[in-house]
Design brief:
TetR/AcrR family transcriptional regulator; HTH_TetR; Tetracycline Repressor, domain 2; 205 residues; transcription regulation; mainly alpha; 9 helices; Arc Repressor Mutant, subunit A
Length: 205
């Protein structure tokens, strides 16, 4: 049988994926403070030199890990136009994913929590949160323009509240999996935002 030779880019991509997976595992098992390039290489079966070649330094590795773990948490959103339906799909999908948190998602939440007290992490996660809020703000603005979201709501305030609630629930789930009924919370929270965001009803006489 002919041997299929991988291209240099394919080998590079495979090595990078293995290194990021190893870094996520170490963060979940031992925390970000224990993360070193040497330990990541050892866990992934590569030398420290390979890790340095791919990422240069620990800060760049963590930044890439943050971007990788955040991307695509709720699948299918890119297919929807901005607006109320997309916003509710994001909330519902985010909470649904908490029932099957993989190592990358766990690593992201732990890194996000650490960013509050770690100056090296803070800029990375401020950027990620700002992008998340901007995405939500665009949904609220589009919903207001379409007449399906209460125009009296402030899009920035809604975005901050949604991010805070979703991340807070996720951290509770990570800390106490048995104490958070994901499906029950999912129904309650999604329903809450559907009612809260809807157009204000005129008072009856």
């Amino acid at each position: 049988m002919a041997t299929i030779r991988r291209t240099q880019q394919e080998r590079r991509d495979q090595a990078e994926a293995a290194l990021l997976a190893a870094a996520a595992e170490l963060v979940v098992e031992q925390g970000v403070r224990s993360l070193t390039l040497a330990r990541v290489g050892e866990r992934a079966g590569y030398s420290r030199g390979i890790v340095t070649h791919h990422f240069g330094a620990k800060q760049a590795l963590i930044e890439r890990l943050a971007r990788t773990t955040q991307a695509g948490f709720v699948p299918g959103l890119d297919e929807l136009p901005p607006g109320l339906d997309r916003l509710l799909r994001l909330i519902d999908g985010y909470l649904g994913e908490l029932g099957r948190l993989g190592v990358f998602n766990q690593a992201f939440l732990l890194l996000w929590a650490e960013a509050a007290t770690q100056p090296d992490l803070a800029p990375i996660f401020r950027e990620r949160d700002a992008a998340f809020r901007a995405d939500l703000r665009a949904d609220v603005e589009a919903g207001i323009a379409a007449g399906v979201i209460d125009p009296g709501l402030e899009p920035d305030d809604v975005a901050i509240a949604v991010v805070g609630q979703l991340r807070g629930i996720a951290l509770q789930r990570l800390l106490d999996p048995r104490g958070v009924d994901v499906e029950q919370v999912r129904r309650s929270v999604t329903g809450y935002w559907r009612r809260t965001l809807g157009p204000a009803q005129a008072p009856t006489s």
